[in-house]
Amino acid sequence: MTKTSVLLVDDEQLNLEILLEYFAEEEDFVLQTADSGESAWACLQDPNQVFSLILLDRMMPGLDGIGLLKRMKSDPRLANIPVIMQTAANSPAQIREGLEAGAYYYLTKPYRRDSLLAIVHAALSDAAARNQLRRQLHQHVNSLQFLDQAEFSIRTIDEAAQLASFIAHACPNPDAVVMGISELLVNGIEHGNLGLSYAEKSRLKQEDRWHDEVAQRAALAENAAKAVRLSYQRSETEIVLRICDEGKGFPWQNYLEIDPQRAFDPNGRGIALARMISFSSISYEGCGNIAVATINRGNGRNGKLST
Asked: Going from the N-terminus, what domains does the chain have, and what CATH number goes with each?
């Protein structure tokens, strides 16, 4: 079995020793430590080192956590490594700064071992899903750039990943767009059609039972015929995706922005990240069971704008 390589970055030796102790019984992990931002950057620049996850202290002398994170995001080889930011403070402004820099997972010191491992496994699971989506992108033909209008219907998480990869090729900058499409489709399945609440998903993620629960609910007779439907419409100026589920809706207004209060949960940031990274805008219709995502077709960066 392939080991998961994790870089632990903290300027306090005691904190590093505590982290090593927390991971002591996790046989699937290989750990390396760095006691400063500069030494961590040296490790990351070593071509023989490949890290699956970074556990990063925010407050360090010299090159701090935010500075190191910004360097990583500017390096294509490192940009997709998930980063968990450790902080002794939980001020909304600092948390928002870290989230906007790319630290989508947070831990507030001091924290318990189970809280650490829940966030670690959630970050690795999300990264694996994103990497799988990127691989699937290259399985589809470039002729999708000529697609003007289409309707699709799916039921499962696996089908959501396949459809997201397929549709992304009909959009500008597929690598950025695919994540947002997948997020909206998966939300429609798990929260909409299967009725999985935010609190339930948080608990299941912490217990590493989310996939099993989704599979069990999807197999129930009451959910057998439920589908999530996606419509694709392209004009000269924009692409509009409408994703409709059969659920009772949700208070979507609370999820368009990254809420610092949810930054420490293993879930709950997907819609806000999709709006930031993948789409020009996201809005909801009906009771919240219809998501409308727009992609402008002008010149610009990321998935929001075309090449």
From this structure: 4-111 (3.40.50.2300), 135-296 (3.30.565.10)
